[in-house]
Amino acid sequence: QSMLTQPPSVSGTPGQRVSISCSGSYSNVARSAVYWYQRLPGAAPKLIVTSTNHRPSGVPDRFSGSKSGTSAPLAINGLQSEDEAEYFCAAWDDSLNGHVFGGGTKLTVL
Amino acid sequence: EVQLVESGGGLIQPGGSLRLSCAASGFTFGSYWMHWVRQAPGKGLVWLSYSNAAESDTNYADSVKGRFTISRDNARNTLYLQMNSLRNDDTAVYFCARGGGANYAGLEYWGRGTLVTVSS
Predict the structure, then answer these.
(1) Residue A69 has what DSSP assignment?
(2) Closest CA–CA distance from residue B75 to any residue of chain A (Å)
(3) What are phi and psi of B115, to 5 degrees?
(4) Are residues B12 and B114 in contact, defined by beta-carbon separation less than 8 angstroms?
(5) What is the pLDDT of residues B32-87, one digit of tens each?
(6) Buried b (16+ CB within 10 A) or exposed e, A9-24
(7) How many CB atoms lie under 10 A from the CB of residue B54?
(8) How many CB pairs under 8 A join A and B?
(9) Which residue of B has its CA nearest to A6?
(10) Which chain A residue is nearest to residue B44, measuring alpha carbons?
(11) Helical (H) or strand (E) element with B6
């Protein structure tokens, strides 16, 4: 049912840079702002990237978003153990008149 | 501090109805778009519905259109989701979330969710 495509899992070691891909279509990623959410186990999802490449107040600058066409990856620099969580990309979809999410990517810090 | 607390989940038989509530605090509830999103076990997040501040603009995902109804009581700072004709595949954790200044804006704050299990 997910409209955006993410890898199920990625992993990295502390200090490493990792990237999580997010692929959509013309009606969503290409035409709209992209959002990234972090969900720690048992916690509420948290908005960590807004308007494709902006961070809400309090989000470390290690997290950065970008977009090119229908692709919008999230990069995490200087990986830390507390970054271990599930990450979801999302975008507004003009054809659905609603938000669409990716299936989520589980990040493991080795 | 912005807080959103969902309640009303539980075990319900297929075909049954349930009403979820989302109590909001720490912000002017009547000024924001609000959304419902769910996550089925082992699956990703799925957007379900939004309401503007006045409840004059609402919309639903196709999977719940005609069965679920979003509403809000701005005087009580509470968002609701009335769920009818529940199916097994409605089993999920249901989250409410505060939107930004438009329906397409990011979901800035979320609750921890309430679990709905549809099973006979």
Answers:
(1) T
(2) 25
(3) -85, 130
(4) no
(5) 999 999 999 989 999 999 999 999 999 999 999 999 999 999 999 999 999 999 99
(6) ebebeeeeebebbbbb
(7) 9
(8) 73
(9) B44
(10) A103
(11) strand B3-7
Chain A nearest-CA residue for B36: A99
Return the residue matching tokens 């996550």: B39
Which residue do the tokens 């505060």 mark?
B98
Question: Looking at the partner chain, which of B47, B59, B113 has a beta carbon nearest the beta carbon of A101?
Answer: B47
Question: Which residue is listed with tokens 């609000």?
Answer: B34
Q: How far is CA B32 from CA A69, A76, A78, in A?
A: 30, 30, 35
Residues of chain A where predicted confidence (pLDDT) is lower than 70: 1-2
**β A85-93/A98-101 pair status:** antiparallel
Q: Give B95's contacts in chain A (Cβ within 8 Å).
A: 44-45
| pLDDT band, very low/low/confident/very high, at B103 (cuts 50, 70, 90) | confident
Neighbours of A2 (CB within 10 A): 16
| Inter-chain touch A104–B4, beta carbons under 8 Å | no
- Helix-then-strand count for chain B, H and E: 0, 11
Which of B2, B6, B38, B47 is the best substitution to test chain A (most A C-beta atoms within 10 A)? Answer: B47
